[in-house]
Amino acid sequence: MKEEETEDIDEGENTNRSLHELDLELQDHMDWWPDLSDLDRLNILGANREDRARLLASKDSKSVESIIKEISRRLDLTFVDDFELSSNPTKILPLRLIHSYSCLPIDAMEQSVQKPKVLCVDDEEGILKGFQLQLRNDFEVHVASSGDEGIEVFKKVGGFSIILSDMRMPGMSGSSMITEIRKIDPKIVCVLITGHSDFEIAKDAINSGQVFKILTKPCPTEELVEVLQQGIQQSESVGKSNLSLNSKGNKVHLLTLWPPTPRMSRWVYAVSGKKPIWYLGLPEKVTRAITENFGIGAESLDDSDLDQDGEEDQQDDLEDQNAAIIRFVNEVIMKAIVDRATDIHFEPHKETLQIRYRIDGQLVPVRVPDNLRSFQDAIISRIKIMGGINISEKRRPQGGRINFSHGQSDLDIRVSTLPTLYGESISLRLLNEKSQPLSMQELGLLGKDEKNIVNILEKPHGIVLVTGPTGSGKSTSLTAFIRRIHKPERRIMTVEDPVEYEVAGINQTQVNSEIGFTFASALREILRQDPDVIMVGEIRDRETADIAIRASLTGHLVLSTLHTNDAPGAITRLIDMEIEPFLIASSVEMVIAQRLVRRLCSKCAMPAQMQKSDLQASLALLGVDIDECKFGDSVLEAVGCPSCQNLGYRGRVGIFELMKMSDSIHSLVIKSASAPDIREIALEEGMSTLQETGWAQIKRGLTTFEEVIRYADGMMDEDEVSVESSKVDQTLPPVTELQ
User: Fold this and answer.
1) Theoretical Cys-Cys bridge with 411: which of 45, 389, 404, 479, CB 3.0 to 4.6 Å?
2) Where does residue 616 fall: left (phi above 0), alpha (psi -120 to 50 degrees), or beta otherwise?
């Protein structure tokens, strides 16, 4: 197909379509959903096809799945939940058409022929039973004993091919009922059955076009079945409900996420030479199948060609390619937002440009078009332009920022470039400016631990340190802490890099190393602002540590973070920074070590079928008492479903280690004792460990043994071999926030 022709096939996706086009759609479509205002229809039809069912569901306060099933019933379209993609789908339909119409060529659905539905309405119970006996072999029969009940059944069941009604009934007559039903479905076929005395009256109904045929009582079975079948065959929806779904040859089976239009069918026939047989599926599954099989942004790059011939079209080709690259980069970022990714990595290799998302702390490869490598330079340049980075400099690392808006999300994206063997690697850190900070209850703290933390936070002075590797949720926890203690009589100030969460009523400052505004300099200025509570994003050097400790000794409560593996390691880290041990002992009130483990998906998690020996071995790895086997029935395992991208996990939850400073620990600190010695005393005094809180989260059905062992088992090994606890654990993947 020529490019000039394909540019006009974008049905429903171009937000700049004229109101006239939308008005035509409003008149021609969605008449099967009459309970909408014209404005609501206009808004729905003006949205992307994949968003329409969601918008309609929000109007009716229903789930998207129930809306799609209801649409399929009303239009006699077959609803498909599981499907197989046809082999070589792009040979059946061009990729641009697949994306424009959000439809997929699928294998023919091997299903039995469905009987057409008939609604029989009569006020005599004996006649209704007779209809059921006469029609049960050829139709799916539903009955009602009055006009009002008939309307109710028609609305509730849906998908009727024909109505058979008595003329005279108490209350609402048959013709009146038909008039009301045709307001719901103007195309429904209706047959009246009446006595000889009513025949002349019934003729008025057939002359008005509301009734297909009139029958007289009693009506033989053969005649009744024949008339009903004729009515269905002559209706505009001929054959929809009883198509042979496994037909082949000159037909193509297409799964879409919104009812097809006549225009879609014409285009499919024009490019494939085959008549389309349409099925309706869930938007989430259809869009995921398109992305997984053809790659994200495949439509954007489909018609771009770097090797175009012909000089007169060279400028047009360049403009088209630039537009395609812009669309592609935007689609990658928008999909990352939908998938709840915190990072996007563009990684050039010899033959491919790999794209990966970090979701819940795990790197997940993204399916990309096969020809993406040829667009690598253009994609990298586009991202650098968006981030305000020098595109001509490719020899040294650079950094930048992108402000990106999508729907209700406003993102502050941090861009980092790094030269590699096959081109520049780019990492994007996504920070949602509108993301809501968590409360302490949402962090996953155990009841006793939360109570101990709150008791310390209520003190007027001292230092509370949160430790852990990069991305373990330290800043998220600190934000939850200051939200908990925020009161009108307390002045709270923060210095962060960057400000990840905006907290109402808190004075938040962001460092800027380019102008020399560091943690130390910011902290020094904050002390002149009369604060009661100070949150320091990170203690990175001796100067910052010294100012923070002295601030805590002069009547301020200081909250900050350190990069250490465990709670006792924070003490030795401060000593390594040449902070006097007696100052540490006098100022530090509590150290909290934490990790983030993936939270089980609530929609697909299932009880783990663990043998007792396996359960005991897992508990032993965590250093938990074997008697805890009695809670084995509460252990769940990850399965995977569409809601969690088949990962089995969705979101994260914290596991914590709390070390409260005591007289015994103070004495060890003053003596510059090692981290293992401090840990031994802390455990004797009841310090909760990562392993213990991890097991508690497993018992609560929030995570799995695999997750807890992955993060906490290393702590056991460290203690056994006395590894220096101040060394930062570089093996853990970076995770930016609790979700």
Assistant:
1) 404
2) alpha
- Token match 């602002």: residue? 529
| Residue finishing a domain among 234, 257, 279 | 234
Nearest to 462 by CA among 550, 391, 384: 550
Residue position matching structure tokens 């809501």:
436
Q: Note the pLDDT of residue 587.
A: 92
CB-hemisphere CA count at 13 Å for 181? 35
**Cross-strand pairs, 657:** 593
Alpha carbon 26 to chain centroid, angstroms: 30
> Domain check: are 178 and 70 in the same one?
no
Query: By CB neighbour count within 10 A (0-12 exposed, 13-18 middle, 19+ buried), where does 470 fall?
Result: middle
- Rounded to the nearest angstrom, the gap between the alpha carbon of residue 355 and the centroid of all alpha carbons in its chain is 18
pLDDT of the residue at 501: 80
How far is the C-alpha of 542 from the C-alpha of 556, rounded, in Å?
Answer: 19
- Asked if the structure places residue 634 within a domain, the reply is no
Q: Is residue 720 assigned to a domain? A: no
pLDDT for the residue 197: 54
Q: Which of 593, 564, 550 is nearest to 724 (CA)?
A: 564
- Which domain CATH number covers 213? 3.40.50.2300
Q: Would you call 125 exposed, middle or buried from its count of C-beta atoms within 10 A (0-12, 13-18, 19+)?
A: exposed
Structurally, the chain folds into a number of domains equal to 4
CATH of the domain at 364: 3.30.450.90
In the block, tokens 């041990």 appear at 581
The DSSP letter of residue 530 is -
108 and 122 inside one domain: no
Burial class (CB in 10 A: 0-12, 13-18, 19+), 489: exposed
Q: Do 225 and 267 reside in the same domain of the chain?
A: no
Count H helices, E strands: the chain? Answer: 29, 24
**124 and 103 fall within a common domain:** no
Classify residue 450: in a domain, yes or no. Answer: yes
Interval 129-172: pLDDT, tens:
888 888 888 888 999 999 999 999 998 888 788 999 988 888 88
Per-residue tokens: 381:
């340049």
Collapsing DSSP states into helix, strand and coil, what is residue 417? strand
Mean pLDDT in consecutive groups of 10 residues from the start of the chain, 739 residues? 39 40 47 78 81 84 84 85 80 79 77 72 87 85 91 86 88 87 85 69 59 83 85 58 43 88 84 86 86 72 49 52 82 88 93 91 86 89 93 91 81 92 93 76 86 92 91 87 90 87 86 84 89 90 90 92 90 91 92 91 85 81 76 81 83 91 92 91 89 88 88 52 34 36
Q: Indicate whether this model's pTM tops 0.85.
A: no
Regarding whether 286 and 229 lie in a shared domain, the answer is: no
| Cis peptide preceding 369, ω within 30 of 0 | no
Using the 8-state DSSP alphabet, how is residue 689 labeled? -
pLDDT for residue 298: 64
Q: Of the candidates 234, 253, 286, which is a domain's last residue?
A: 234
Residue 332 lies in a domain: no
Cα→Cα distances 615→600, 607, 624, 703, Å: 18, 13, 11, 15
> Containing domain of residue 410, as a range?
314-322+338-432
Rounded CA separation 656/452 (Å):
12
